[in-house]
Amino acid sequence: MDEKIFLYYTNDLHSHFENWPKIVGHWKKRRKHHQERGETMFLIDIGDHVDRFHPIAEALHGKANVQLLNNAQYDVATIGNNEGITLTHEDLYSLYEEADFDLVVANLNNQNGPNPKWLRSYSIQTTNQGTRVGMIGLTAPFQAFYGLLGWDISSPFDELDRLLEDLQGKTDIIVLLSHLGINDDQEIARRYPGIDVIIGGHTHHLFRDGEWVENTLLTAAGKHGVYIGEVILDWDVTAEQLNKKQAYAYEITDKAEDEETTKQLEQYLEEANSILNQPVTHLTAPLPVHWFQETIIMKELVETLRTWTEADCAMLNAGVLLEGFHQGAVTRGDIHSICPHPMNPCKVSLKGDELLEVIRQAHTKRFMELKLKGFGFRGEILGRMVYAGLEVSVARDDEGNEFVRKVLLQGEPVDFDKTYYVATADTFTFGKILPEIANSRDKTYYMPELLRDLLADTLMRIS
What we know:
Domain Calcineurin-like phosphoesterase: 10-205
Keywords: Hydrolase, Nucleotide-binding, Signal
CATH class of the largest domain: Alpha Beta
InterPro entries: 5'-Nucleotdase_C (IPR008334), 5'-Nucleotdase_C_sf (IPR036907), 5_nucleotidase/apyrase (IPR006179), Calcineurin-like_PHP (IPR004843), Metallo-depent_PP-like (IPR029052), Pesterase_YunD (IPR011240)
Structural class: alpha/beta
Mean pLDDT: 96
Family: Belongs to the 5'-nucleotidase family.
Helix content: 25-40%
Number of domains: 2
Number of helices: 15
Strand content: 25-35%
Radius of gyration: 24 Å
Domain 5'-Nucleotidase C-terminal: 291-427
């Protein structure tokens, strides 16, 4: 006798709630459909549901996201790096206290004191016919960040070595909820044949029809709730084996909205705006912003960054401020909307020649016009680099391209062999945007402060 088991999932919503009413409406229809047929469905989230770029997530510290998952009747979820390292220790510790679903993160532990009551390594869900589906949760091990926030984050592979042995005999099917990214998912599938399905996220990859690595089925549904995912498992109850595995990701745009969810989001937004309407300071004159020019507010923000981190110099791209400030009262909501990025200040050590190369790269058209997606950046383009402690003279070639002519650090030429401490945004320590910064072996991250916290300090200082 065969049993069909249905797993539906979301991943990397990043608080993009514009599609959430349609997603919930679809889940309700699928649940009714399966209930009428006596079939089992499980609803799963793979993390990064919370993103502090949105005022609801910012003002309510992610708690509204959890209630949205509750109301949609999710069964199991894991966390992503946006829940894990953009919230304070206290906010993450209490985030899932009222969750009606199981929260699984096998490679996360509290540094000091007991783990929160909601934290577990895996969940075993049982179908209508008694089939046991073990769901393990793993999240990306950003060790440098978690440690500063009071959490221990361990190797996903070490945890799988332990858990897969522990789950032997306890489950019939094993599903990994992975917020690790596509490369780790593929490696896990090669190393651990006992995992039947990997539902992935973090790298925002999209597998419309799943992907096979050895005998493991991988699936993922992109980002922002544009796609949602479905896994269908055919379990032979008598032979106790999986006969078939299928995975699909499909667009949600043509689905009907759930009106109750739409109203709930409107209420949360009203509550969030009320909280964020708290005044921070009052400006006697407007402070305009230009992504390709140095402006007063950007110059002052970079100076705040330099002094706050006690660095030799500092640099930030003008695109971190999405618009300028009007004259008059400035609220928390204004600061959040103008600087929505979950980006932290950081400080890196660079040799003089490396610092000069970073400055040269930052003045290229490629850098200034880069439409960066991810790495904490929630803006449009990077824009011009603005400095504190540095004097950068530029000129243009015959084709109009800008190049660096001269650089002084605190009035002196940069010494190629000297080590300097440079403050910037943590965005540049990831990827290959500015390789010298990313490859620095000496990085100091400042947490839980975000750039907008420094922006608030700056505005109060200059108003």
